[in-house]
Amino acid sequence: MSNPMTPGIAAARLPAETLAQNFADLHAPLDRHEARVAADRCYFCYDAPCVTACPTSIDIPLFIRQISTGTPDAAAKTIFDQNILGGMCARVCPTEDLCEQACVREAAEGKPVEIGRLQRYATDTLMAKQSHPYSRAAPTGKTVAVVGAGPAGLACAHRLAMYGHDVTIFDAQTKPGGLNEFGIAAYKSTDDFAAREVDWLMGIGGITLQTGKALGRDLSLDALAGDFDAVFLAVGLGGVNALQAAGEDKDGVRNAVDFIAELRQASDLTSLPVGRDVVVIGGGMTAVDAAVQSKLLGAQNVTIAYRRSRDAMSASRYEQDLAASHGVRLMFNVQPVAIHGNGSVREVELEYTADTGAGLQGTGETIRLRVDQLFKAIGQTLETGAGLALDGRKIAVTAAGRTSRAGVWAGGDCASGGDDLTVTAVAEGRDAAMDIHAALTA
Amino acid sequence: MADLTTNFLGIKSPNPFWLASAPPTDKEYNVRRAFDAGWGGVVWKTLGSEGPPVVNVNGPRYGAIYGADRRLLGLNNIELITDRPLQTNLDEIKRVKADYPDRAMIVSIMVPCEEQAWKDILPRVQETGADGIELNFGCPHGMSERGMGAAVGQVPEYIEMVTRWCKQYYDKPVIVKLTPNITDIRQPAAAAMRGGADAVSLINTINSITSVNLDTMSPEPSIDGKGSHGGYCGPAVKPIALSMVSEIARHPETRGLAISGIGGVTTWRDAAEYISLGCGNVQVCTAVMTYGFKIVQEMISGLSGWMDEKGYTSVEQVVGRAIPNVTDWKYLNLNYVAKAKINQDDCIKCGRCYAACEDTSHQAIAMSADRTFTVIDAECVACNLCVDVCPVENCITMEAMQPGQVDPRTGKVVQKEYANWTTHPNNPGAVAAE
């Protein structure tokens, strides 16, 4: 067996039991007592700021009051009415930047109501009952194609199915879930939650899933538009940005999203290799997820290298602290200029940067870090716009999700507007479904 | 540290904090530890007549209501008087009093409404060396069904009669404990006074059902599927007790009667409030049943510190200080005008004041797009609801308007002169000012 100091990229740096511990639930679920205590702290604010801060506008004070009065099932229904993926959002939402940041008790005491964990308590309670809480309206005879079984696609499909439309979801992967299944740190979605959530969601009926079908490869927008009454595109961002640093092709250089996906799908964590010296280039949640998980797999030294200042980092302060608490080194104002090594990466050369007011500039001073595994986490790009009008690098959509082509809607990360968050994708999918429903029944 | 020594009816105790007659004072083991913890006095759990003791239920005796975080706000009990043999209690009382001569030891008694019953027990109590007796005319459950406790306390003539017997057959102070389960507390207090009582203590517990079990449809606490009303106490009853105490303290017939205040005393502040309304001391029960004997330390340090801060050197100086300010509604100054004021620095923007004012009161709070809440003086009637629902203490205050200012709600100039309903033009029975 290897250990954290084993040179190069190696599997089984830590014993299986340690790995199991490391990848256990980041936030253990609240038990009934903990939930009641946490719920008691909610002030039931008027026009509550937490609701405004939630992209899906969940009625948070109401669901917390329902928990505190001993009706977690009703609380879950309040959540799911707005956000059918409320279970996953309870796990992965950056609540510290959303509802909990807006909580008045954050202003009052620096300690917000634990909205995320309470949401998980409620949704877990209802989902454990194994029955789907919604039923379908009478069939409309209308059909809708949803491309992409990630949060946006699933939310859209569920809402459409609820209104009585027949939905077919196509997904390029072998199983549904999108980033919920492949793109989130393992300790945020344990026990195969993403897959269980999809199964539960599909329990409403009226949704058919076809996997292994990618837009542009197996599917064309024209064909879909011809075969279905409406199309919703939620294909995400399949491409990965390049570093534009010399030596990017060396062995040991990898996309962070691939590493994260592999880790999520691994049945045996001891079989998953990781470097002794890991450097992650980037400053978002993907960078943090890759860095922390490298550390948890047993990498000895892990560094996040971000080209701008800490304030500009898109990973929340909470995520930064999470990384730091796991022993990840955070470097700011450094950008990769060269990757050195003979075949395999051995060193990354970083140049210090400064914001001159006229943009970010290299200072000329460089530093070399030892590295045998380098993860690129500098953002993803849209793979195909399917001939639709773009807004910047994403599919242009209206507030209701309408694209430039009649009968085609889009949402989630592939579409313009909103942050690239699970909860935002859910909101966009849901809202597009409402608009599609309105269009189909007009 | 202000001296908390209290002289109540000639009974001295190192502080005004006594334990009420209740489960914590049922036996020597407890009372010794209570005195060791610092309690100034104890009213021993109520004794009954010689003979087989009463029996208690063998299921739950207590039920509770809670505030946030399951903080106990109200407690209900269906326990009866002591269920231990009379002589056992008397022996223990005698031993404890001998070992703690500086503490007040009062014996609570409840025997049938017959002169002989009282004549029998009083000499035996006298023999213990206890400092006085308290007549339990308050217990609202169980014993009242047998013509004792609240059944006596609800009939002023009985109170007077039994009190007289006690004064006749017992030399030391007699305190009459009153039930709040009546319409006018002044009547039983006056009856006790006529009977020669040295003091009244109040309130005993209030008839209550704390909750209903929605699965079994039984009131709680439930004994094999059935429930009976119990006696309610704890922080929730304090306002009721304070009002009753004040009524006795300012009623012409009972004014000056010594009062031992009981009902939800949980902190030093509660005690100070009772004392300010005319109580010579307070009795505590639920707080001890919830937190244990140790809380008396906070009560002692808190009351003493507050007295230092205010310059009071004895508890006596505080007794009744608030009484002159308790009046009837008709005498409240209608020329006093206040407006709510929200301190924006303290505001956490929860909007509870807005919801309360908008849905209940006078739509006198404005809410801006950025959640700044401000009072609309032209609508504000100073009802205080916003203050009451605000989670941040002193964030919203009631600011008095100064004479000469114009109240934007009424358009009238605020008058300096006091004027009340008795002379108000809208009052058909108004008496013209002479």
Automatic annotation (TrEMBL), chain A:
<dbReference type="InterPro" id="IPR028261">
    <property type="entry name" value="DPD_II"/>
</dbReference>
<feature type="domain" description="FAD/NAD(P)-binding">
    <location>
        <begin position="143"/>
        <end position="429"/>
    </location>
</feature>
<protein>
    <submittedName>
        <fullName>Pyridine nucleotide-disulphide oxidoreductase family protein</fullName>
    </submittedName>
</protein>
<feature type="domain" description="Dihydroprymidine dehydrogenase">
    <location>
        <begin position="21"/>
        <end position="129"/>
    </location>
</feature>
<dbReference type="InterPro" id="IPR023753">
    <property type="entry name" value="FAD/NAD-binding_dom"/>
</dbReference>
<dbReference type="Pfam" id="PF07992">
    <property type="entry name" value="Pyr_redox_2"/>
</dbReference>
<dbReference type="Pfam" id="PF14691">
    <property type="entry name" value="Fer4_20"/>
</dbReference>
<dbReference type="InterPro" id="IPR009051">
    <property type="entry name" value="Helical_ferredxn"/>
</dbReference>
<dbReference type="GO" id="GO:0051536">
    <property type="term" value="F:iron-sulfur cluster binding"/>
</dbReference>
<dbReference type="InterPro" id="IPR036188">
    <property type="entry name" value="FAD/NAD-bd_sf"/>
</dbReference>
<dbReference type="GO" id="GO:0016491">
    <property type="term" value="F:oxidoreductase activity"/>
</dbReference>
Automatic annotation (TrEMBL), chain B:
<dbReference type="GO" id="GO:0005737">
    <property type="term" value="C:cytoplasm"/>
</dbReference>
<keyword id="KW-0411">Iron-sulfur</keyword>
<dbReference type="InterPro" id="IPR017896">
    <property type="entry name" value="4Fe4S_Fe-S-bd"/>
</dbReference>
<comment type="subunit">
    <text>Heterotetramer of 2 PreA and 2 PreT subunits.</text>
</comment>
<keyword id="KW-0408">Iron</keyword>
<dbReference type="GO" id="GO:0051536">
    <property type="term" value="F:iron-sulfur cluster binding"/>
</dbReference>
<dbReference type="GO" id="GO:0004159">
    <property type="term" value="F:dihydropyrimidine dehydrogenase (NAD+) activity"/>
</dbReference>
<keyword id="KW-0479">Metal-binding</keyword>
<dbReference type="InterPro" id="IPR005720">
    <property type="entry name" value="Dihydroorotate_DH_cat"/>
</dbReference>
<dbReference type="Pfam" id="PF01180">
    <property type="entry name" value="DHO_dh"/>
</dbReference>
<comment type="similarity">
    <text>Belongs to the dihydropyrimidine dehydrogenase family.</text>
</comment>
<dbReference type="InterPro" id="IPR017900">
    <property type="entry name" value="4Fe4S_Fe_S_CS"/>
</dbReference>
<dbReference type="Pfam" id="PF14697">
    <property type="entry name" value="Fer4_21"/>
</dbReference>
<keyword id="KW-0560">Oxidoreductase</keyword>
<protein>
    <recommendedName>
        <fullName>dihydrouracil dehydrogenase (NAD(+))</fullName>
        <ecNumber>1.3.1.1</ecNumber>
    </recommendedName>
</protein>
<dbReference type="GO" id="GO:0046872">
    <property type="term" value="F:metal ion binding"/>
</dbReference>
<dbReference type="InterPro" id="IPR013785">
    <property type="entry name" value="Aldolase_TIM"/>
</dbReference>
<comment type="function">
    <text>Involved in pyrimidine base degradation. Catalyzes physiologically the reduction of uracil to 5,6-dihydrouracil (DHU) by using NADH as a specific cosubstrate. It also catalyzes the reverse reaction and the reduction of thymine to 5,6-dihydrothymine (DHT).</text>
</comment>
<feature type="domain" description="4Fe-4S ferredoxin-type">
    <location>
        <begin position="372"/>
        <end position="401"/>
    </location>
</feature>
<feature type="domain" description="4Fe-4S ferredoxin-type">
    <location>
        <begin position="338"/>
        <end position="370"/>
    </location>
</feature>
